[in-house]
């Protein structure tokens, strides 16, 4: 059960890797194309007319042993991953309207938090939490790409040294488009899809 943001005291990503291991990651078309083009088409799959990051097991193939994200290092981290544990809506999808309402200069949104994230603490919201939520809203709206308050610091990678990833493969954009087209006739609609939540829980 997701909690209204006003129940949360603080959030800090501790790079535990849980969100990279227990959830399925939906991709927007532009994200799928970029990952396929730069890292290989193997890493994108289509399930039930939706694009997802392919996982070899429960763990994301781009999760480094340091529990930090290789895609983030490349500036390619999917929006769904950036948003978790926050779920952002324009309507109170999970109830508790007053507790979930979050007003900012960008409007009023309804924010819920996944309590399974070890980085959250219950209590009176701090200013830092509200700043993190504002950052998440900007990311959700497509107004911001860079994460500061909603992710773990990548500076730790410099201390841990270089970690190798699977060999990068190059493909043509037409591959994914031709794959999507026959299976998803409403490609125009898909391009405008917002993926209201963050990540999908793996069964």
Secondary structure: number of strands: 10
Distance between the termini: 16 Å
Low-confidence stretches: 156-177, 179-197
Number of domains: 1
The helix content, as a percent range, equals 25-40%
InterPro entries: Puta_zinc/iron-chelating_dom
Pfam families: CxxCxxCC (PF03692)
How does this structure look, described?
This protein has helices at 29-39, 70-73, 79-83, 97-100, 127-140, 155-160, 173-183, 187-191; strands at residues 3-4, 8-11, 23-24, 44-47, 50-53, 86-89, 101-104, 107-113, 120-122, 200-201. With 203 residues, it is α+β, with helices and mostly antiparallel strands. The protein has one domain (3-201). A hairpin with a 2-residue loop joins strand 7 and strand 8 (107-113). The longest helix is centred in the middle third of the chain and has 14 residues, at 127-140. The two termini are 16 Å apart. InterPro entries: Puta_zinc/iron-chelating_dom.
Describe this structure in a few short sentences.
The chain is of the alpha+beta class. The protein has helices at residues 29-39, 70-73, 79-83, 97-100, 127-140, 155-160, 173-183, 187-191; strands spanning 3-4, 8-11, 23-24, 44-47, 50-53, 86-89, 101-104, 107-113, 120-122, 200-201.
List the helices and strands and how they pair.
Layout lengths: L2 E2 L3 E4 L11 E2 L4 H11 L4 E4 L2 E4 L16 H4 L5 H5 L2 E4 L7 H4 E4 L2 E7 L6 E3 L4 H14 L14 H6 L12 H11 L3 H5 L8 E2 L2
Antiparallel strand pairs: 1-8, 2-9, 3-10, 4-5, 6-8, 7-8
